[in-house]
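Give me the fold.
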Amino acid sequence: MCCSNDGLYYSLCEKTLQNSLQKIIFVYRNDSYKNSYLFKKKDLVIENDNNNPVAIQVGGSDFNDLKKCSKVAYEYNYDEINLNVGCPSKAVQKGSFGACLMQDKVLVRQCIESMQNKNIITSMKCRIGLGKNLNYDYFEEFIDEVLKSGIKIIYVHARNAILSGISPKANRTIPPLNYDFVKKIKLRFPNINFILNGGIDDFEKAKELIKVYDGIMVGRLIQNNPFILKNVDKSIYKEKNFTTINEDTILDYFSYINTRTQQESIYRLLSPLLQIFFGVPGSKIFKKEINETMRIGRLDKIEKIFLKFIKDKNFLLN
């Protein structure tokens, strides 16, 4: 599973890479971090244009809002809607959602129940606990209550969430990882799919973990280098037909960003694509030329540089 809360990374992963991937489970979008966001500002949500399966994540604790979010997600062609019960930021806490909801397991269960309908899968993402001290019993009691809603998929960031004193960024590294909690909860509820998240920072680690758990969720690994996705089919699923990076990858992505030049800076638009140079010998000259061209804002010329890079380095990229 690839997780992205950035429309540009989403586009590169979903529109250019996932089209060739045979077995990647989900492109996963974090779209809502305010109550009512989805159905009040539908124009800000990327409508899924048939690149399924795709999930969307929302945050909230108002039952009516969440019910409407679920309806909008279905109308926008998403396969799954996920309730975020893992984000520890202060802004999220003020809105009464995110990780702070783990303090009220009954409320979380009711939120999930309000989102459920026959048209779309409902799931949840959470942490393994709150505060600095690990407590498996707390985690199991929370999961036990939530499962009364009938959901079958839970994504677990295998760290506690610390709600005060550290930043959301630090919450991704300072609380220690504990994958054993996820193994143990799977033994307790064997019919539930528990998807592991947290600390999966290289492809080889991902390959090993996917053998042990029901699935894995990766976010920053893909954000740091979206092109690592091209290895999924060949390395994990042993597919003979697998993704290659070619001219269409560039043309598809530039077709997308050309419609956004009035809303975003060129650097912001090109940021995901710049990872294509990762680990490729002789790419320095191309990067230098692109950086110089970015200063004058010539997106058309930059596209030609990328196409030349693909042509010259194709055997190294694939």
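The chain has a mean pLDDT of 85.
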